[in-house]
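Anyone up for a design puzzle?
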């Protein structure tokens, strides 16, 4: 049983041969026959006290060393995957925003206010207003969470820079592509909302630093216990209302805010709720599958032990 527990098989040469205890006449040798005490009959030297020496092989040592390296590498790989998922989610969000902008039915709520301010103050770029808007949202989080705000969440600022770069890159990639009819514009808007919601869910599921807008929503969720998608709807409506106010004050008309902005504000959170529910079902299914695989592996191991 010691060999089964250690996982290392002893060298076959260490095992006593069944014929080693037989004499030339075919009878068992008295010096090798076991007695009731477990000592060879006729043996004059007692067995030394203390634990029996452990046999180790280079293969066992390397196996244990490899397991230790794998256990140390696993958390690093897990964190790397989470960060990669977060960055991918930020990029997907940027693509969704660009598709909504191309629909020409109004900007998405999270970027509507910076867009309107850029229209009102052409000397300042849209990216600069977007970065200022994201920094403002970080201050909102600090006001909501206070002592619960983590210093690591300040990484939202460089993430906002990455977010802006992705928006510019995808906009250049889309180029002159744009809908030609009002119906096509609505199709673009629906696709953009679906892509934007998918990016939001990816950043939330990653469990790392989220984009500033989603981080504000998450802060409200932590304080109130409400559903993420529900709070997201309220946040988007507030952003749309602020964009309307800025358009009326600084531009003089509803530039950058149209019916598509209101639809995005009302429905993006609903789509997020649907994605989160689907993710929950997939995660529960994966857990049941792992539990079933583990029980089958335990049964197979027990069967092997019984056979041995």
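Challenge accepted. My sequence:
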């Amino acid at each position: 049983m010691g060999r089964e527990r250690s996982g290392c098989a002893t060298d076959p040469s260490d095992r006593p041969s069944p014929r080693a205890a037989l004499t030339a006449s075919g009878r068992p040798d008295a010096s090798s026959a076991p007695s009731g005490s477990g000592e060879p009959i006729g043996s004059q030297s007692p067995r030394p006290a203390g634990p029996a020496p452990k046999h180790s092989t280079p293969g066992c040592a390397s196996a244990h060393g490899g397991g230790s390296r794998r256990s140390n590498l696993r958390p690093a790989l897990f964190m790397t995957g989470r960060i990669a998922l977060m960055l991918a989610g930020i990029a997907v969000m940027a693509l969704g925003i660009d598709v909504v902008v191309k629909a020409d039915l109004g900007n998405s709520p999270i970027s509507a206010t910076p867009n309107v301010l850029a229209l009102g103050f052409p000397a300042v770029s849209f990216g600069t207003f977007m970065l200022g808007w994201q920094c403002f949202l970080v201050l909102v989080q600090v006001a909501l969470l206070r002592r619960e705000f983590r210093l690591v969440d300040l990484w939202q600022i460089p993430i906002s820079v990455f977010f802006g770069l992705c928006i510019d890159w995808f906009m250049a990639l889309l180029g002159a592509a744009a809908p030609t009819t009002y119906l096509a514009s609505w199709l673009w808007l629906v696709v953009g909302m679906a892509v934007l919601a998918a990016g939001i869910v990816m950043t939330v599921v990653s469990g790392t630093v989220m984009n500033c807008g989603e981080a504000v929503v998450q802060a409200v969720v932590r304080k109130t216990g409400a559903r993420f998608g529900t709070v997201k709807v309220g946040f988007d409506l507030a952003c749309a209302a602020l964009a309307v106010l800025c358009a009326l004050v600084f531009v003089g008309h509803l530039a950058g805010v149209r019916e598509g902005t209101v639809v995005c504000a009302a429905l993006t959170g609903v789509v997020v709720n649907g994605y989160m529910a689907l993710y929950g079902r997939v995660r529960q299914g994966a857990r049941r599958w792992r539990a079933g695989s583990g029980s089958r592996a335990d049964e197979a191991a027990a069967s092997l032990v019984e056979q041995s």
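A detail worth pointing out: Confidence is low (pLDDT under 50) at residues 1-46.
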